Amino acid sequence: MNQLEKRIITKIEGHGKVNINLAQKKAKLEIDEGERLFEGLVIGRPYNDAPYITSRICGVCPTSHLLASIKAIESAFQIQPDERTILLRRLILAGQICQSHILHLYFLALPDYLKIQSSLDMPEKFPEQFANGIKLKRLFDEFIEIIGGRAVHPLTPTIGGFTKLPTANQLYILRDKLEDNLEVALETIKLFAGFHYPIITRETEMMALKNDETYPMYDGIVWTSEGEGFAPSNYQNEIEEIVKNNSSAKFSIRKNKYKNGFIVGSRARMAMFADYLNPKTKKEYLASSGKIGPANPFFNNLAQAIEVTHFMEESIILIDKIASLINENITFKVIPKAGIGTGAVEAPRGILYHQYEFDSNGKIIRADIITPTAQNLTSIEDDIEALLLHATGLENDRIEKLVNMLIRAFDPCITCSVH
Amino acid sequence: MKNDQNNIIKKKIGIYDLTDCEGCELQLLASRSKIEELLKYFDFVNFRLLGTENKNYLDVALIEGTPLTQSDIDLIHNVRKQSKIVIAFGTCAANGGIAAGIDAKERENFAKKIYSTKYASLALVKSRRENQMQTALPLSSYIKVDYIISGCPVEPNVIFDLLMTLYNLGSIENQDFPVCQECKAQGNQCLLKNNEVCFGPIIQAGCGAPCPTAGHGCLGCLGLLKDANIKQFNAKLKKIGLSDARIEQLYNIFLKNRKI
Questions:
Q1: Residues B188, A341: Cα–Cα separation, whole Å
Q2: Which of A21, A200, A205, B19 is the most buried (most CB within 10 A)?
Q3: Which B residues 79-138 touch A at CB under 8 Å?
Q4: pTM for the complete prediction?
Q5: Residues A64, A67, A72, CA angle at the centre, nearest 5°?
Q6: pLDDT at position B2, please?
Q7: How many other β-carbons are positioned within 10 Å of the β-carbon of residue B128?
Q8: 8 A C-beta contact, residue B99 and residue B205
Q9: Measured over all CA atoms, what is the biggest interatomic distance in chain A, rounded to whole angstroms?
């Protein structure tokens, strides 16, 4: 049999299938999640509906959508939030990246490497790993709840600031919990560094936000591994979205003469900006690197584990800066302006763009959102094809399993990619 | 059904997701859902996100998301056939949710604009009954639903309480009181009294009022309270300066299908 037809991919966020032609070494992703049409849902609504509605694109990374949306509005209305707001946003974004990575690492990816079908088999077969996964997942849920008011679809981040601030005491409690759990998270790096990954490599262009002070996260220009940068507001001149038959997600390619795919996310961030990792994490990163590098898509799992401790260390640093700034909440008056605003942040899976156009009353007349997974889809197909070239002589079942593992290593969020 | 060491007869449960954000099923891993405890009483025999699949009998099916595509609709008919109890899980399943904010005609136009004029949208399904394009509808428009856990997202403790009540008693009675009651218990200042939009007085409680507690008005993700005085509430919204069009827009975030 030369064809593996329309195999459903499990343990990913959302619905997709993969079609594989073994003879021709061709792969096709078919994304069949229904379109909710968020870019239409917000049309005609006032600006302040956008963050609330568009954050519901994804239950895994709602905080990222919330902040990208808020940043887009602020950029259109030329609002400059104060230092405390930016620090708190960085903090909640750090929590978001960790919350999403832990879900993926322990509950979606780990079963592949422990050779079990589902993470629900873990309590019986791997109780220690299950306990660690649950412990970390709940730590980061609590993290988002303290800063955002709720673990999924947080509430407090708003245009110009926060509707409610955490107390200094809550922040110190969170700080203690992060310190207490850092060891468990460092163990996660060791766990993922210890697995044998399939050896496939394929050089590809990478992108991440560069701000010259910290590891990619909240702001900066879009930096590519070709050594060039562009302003996030210019993304439509740099990235093209292709509408395909049989896919409700668009596929991104570069808008240049090569029309190549590219990657965003943990692997891209770490390949270009590992120098900025926090001290304890960097030590662990150096100890584990060399085994598997960023040219291998499976590196993404290890990179996510490394990012978790980096962002835990980062959160501790941020809390130390913020705790003294917690005092009266300041209400913020928004004055809408006609114009276009773009917001970009590093979501767990890579750069997320929100762009809106407003009329003079602040009513939304156009919206455009490109999610990290939509950007990665072209590369996922290319990497599957690279894997098929390596996988000659293997049983079809084994190939199917490897293809599934590869797709999962990207941690695709299909729900986001369709929106 | 299988027995474990403590001779607890486990019930079979399935988690299904249609078109949605998957935030509700993730709440199953939240601490207040106590999944370790639930695993003692339930076998999660179907949970696509976590990699289990099963097409046999189920005691309980939790269906998350709105049925928007043909495969969503086919799936729920099958799940209904194989399940004793079907629970609409989250606002999308309960009443169509956020995707219901636009009607079928707008849906068609936006799909052309966002994709291309030639693009065949998956989320434009003709209803068999009326032979016309449908927007996002509640699960109950397609199949019989036994219980509803609404919320965007659902509150984790509600999941645990409902499943354990079902396990122990086999049925549940709905409570009917407004979000205001839970909001007051949190010691919050009333946002509506402060002339800020909050749907609390006309919305079914059960969430613990996290939104007003975080300084954000309730927008009604748990659905309308039975016997809610909507006329009086709308008059209040007008009094604080909202136009009829804006009031309708706010209802359309979570309550577009309220008349169905």
A1: 34
A2: B19
A3: 98-99, 101-102, 106-107, 109-111, 113-116, 119-123, 136
A4: 0.96
A5: 125
A6: 47
A7: 8
A8: no
A9: 68
